[in-house]
Amino acid sequence: MHSVDLVTVEVLRGALTYVAEEMGVSLRKSAYSPNIKERLDYSCAIFDSKGRLIAQAEHIPVHLGSLSYAMKMFLKEYKETLDEGDMALFNDPYISGTHLPDMTLVAPVYYGGELVAYVANKAHHSDVGGKAPGSLSGDATEIFQEGIIVPPVKFVEKGKVNRDLARFIISNVRTPEVRMGDLRAQIAANNLGVRRVLNIAERYGLETLNSAMKAIMDYSEARMRARIKEMPEGTYEAEDFLEDTGVEDKPVRIKVKVTVEGSNITFNYDGTDPQVEGPINAPLGVTLSGVYFALISITDPTIPVNDGCFRPVKVIVPEGCILNPKKPVPVAGGNVETSQRNVDVLFKAFSKIVPEKVCAAGQGTMNNVCVGGVDPETGKQWTFYETIAGGYGGRYGMDGADAVHVHMTNTMNTPIEAIEASYPIRFLEYRIRRDSGGPGRWRGGCGVERSWMLLAPSATLSILAERTKTSPWGLFGGKPGAKGEYLIKKADGRIVKLKSKCVIKMKRGDVLVIRTPGGGGYGDPLLRDPRLVLKDVLDDKVSIESAARDYGVVINPKDMSIDWRATENLRERLKTR
């Protein structure tokens, strides 16, 4: 393999990264569902001919980290050959690494008859069958209740969709036209990716491209090893809990030991609880994606993310535990909820290694909402899926962001206009949730309050969430963020408090109210600049009562000014508690 100058390597790295980005643009613009078009629930990546990650777009961490695992498992499990113009489709979580709604599509790239690379994308489909609309049932006890399982199959052959297979898939989902539209969007994205990689190969030559791919991975490995070597050597432990299984009301522990030794780092999950009957089991691909995300976040996010980043990393996950379960336990919530708690645990361990680079706990949930039924006007089924933003944890020198999707999800807010235009839903409220961010020298981000009314005669609602019993923790004296809350306001005025994982029936006029958790605070709240506290009060993020109780800042409600003498006295009293 001949050497390539560094300028060419960097040009090709940027070109391959932009191929993945452009694939995402194509997927979004071609898709049918608001979940992909508006919320951007998809990810794209480029792999070399051996299935090693070369470049990825800035999409969704839980997708991207698991795509490397999915590609390795695909090449191991798929016994046929993907020829030019073929594409393989699969969603089996024990191969694809996430959950059934995530459909993975892989296409080979051939140049001069030789396999050059693979392009791949993963997109979340808002329904893939199963016991409840949206395929994210909070009370599932086996994977077969979560939707149709697709092993690696040749979905596209020589450029043409396998119509029998397509008919089989869409016959098992509630919204076949939308599902097929989204699958065609995935095909279009891969077709574009193949063309763009071929353009690069034609311009620079196959030998230069292959050499550059190797150099790109070696470069990332060297930078990652250098960052790990800067960490203090030793073993650091942490644990946190999921609040219940969805089937049993018992906490589930995730425990990790992080060992830094030279330029190598090991993550050992011995002591993590065994797999459970409910849907919060996380496939190994999800667990790996959390490790990769946390490590890249606390080292140097400017390191190009590819297979080289992962070479210094060893991950030990006991088979049969909640982070490496055995088929056929359900896993829908593992991808969305357990993935978040895994990152919380990892960041808690890293707070003992690089404290100024770690944030307090974010909201720790994706607040998954699925709802569906039959449209009375058309007689067709409809399904809607979204995740809802919350608070990001406070960080050294910076408050947590308000109303954002945190950590393992990088999706967007679904505009209420798009939802109301597509589904029998009317929004009543959408605002920042006051006093939800954990108090700290640097405040945790605030969650949101979001409510809507059902306009259809009836619908089935699934909630799959966390942090309604355990608060997102603060760091170094920071206080916890507020817990989440899920309510149904009935048309007759009754209020029903929902469990964080449930499937219920809604009737016309029922209102769903969701109050999402806030992020934990960072540092002693009594060290926060009183002027920042006043600004939070004026912005309606902190109440006057919380300003006094949590920050020791006395604000005059008549003119909304700080009483500096009273504040000094109150802070002195609070310090002696």
Keywords:
577 residues; seven-stranded antiparallel sheet; alpha+beta; single chain; 14 helices; 3 domains; 22 strands; five-stranded antiparallel sheet
Instruction: Figure out the total of helices.
Output: 14
Distance between the termini: 68 Å
Structural class: alpha+beta
Relative strand content = 15-25%
- Would you count the extended β strands for me? 22
Rg is 24 Å
Poorly predicted spans:
none
Order of strands, main sheet, comes to: 2-1-5-4-3-6-7
Count of distinct structural domains: 3
Sheet of most strands: 7 strands, antiparallel
Overall form: globular
Mean pLDDT: 95
- Helix coverage percent of residues? 25-40%
Describe this structure in words.
- With 577 residues, the chain is α+β, with helices and mostly antiparallel strands.
- The chain folds into three domains: 6-220, no CATH class; 359-525, no CATH class; 530-575, no CATH class.
- It contains 14 helices and 22 strands.
- The strands form five sheets. It has a seven-stranded antiparallel β-sheet with strand order 2-1-5-4-3-6-7, sandwiched between helices. Strands 14-15-20-17-18 form a five-stranded antiparallel β-sheet, covered by helices on one side. A four-stranded mixed β-sheet has the order 8-9-10-11.
- The longest helix is centred in the N-terminal third of the chain and has 29 residues, at 176-204.
- It is globular, with a radius of gyration of 24 Å.
- The N and C termini lie far apart (68 Å).
- The mean pLDDT is 95.
Record the SSE blueprint.
Layout: H1 6-30, H2 34-37, E1 42-48, E2 53-56, H3 61-77, E3 87-90, H4 93-96, E4 102-111, E5 114-124, E6 153-157, E7 160-161, H5 163-170, H6 176-204, H7 206-229, E8 234-242, E9 252-261, E10 264-268, H8 284-298, H9 307-310, E11 313-316, H10 332-350, E12 368-374, E13 381-386, H11 416-422, E14 425-432, E15 448-454, E16 458-464, E17 485-489, E18 495-497, E19 501-507, E20 511-515, H12 530-538, H13 544-551, E21 555-556, E22 561-562, H14 564-575
Parallel strand pairs: 10-11
Antiparallel strand pairs: 1-2, 1-5, 3-4, 3-6, 4-5, 6-7, 8-9, 9-10, 12-13, 12-16, 14-15, 15-20, 16-19, 17-18, 17-20, 21-22
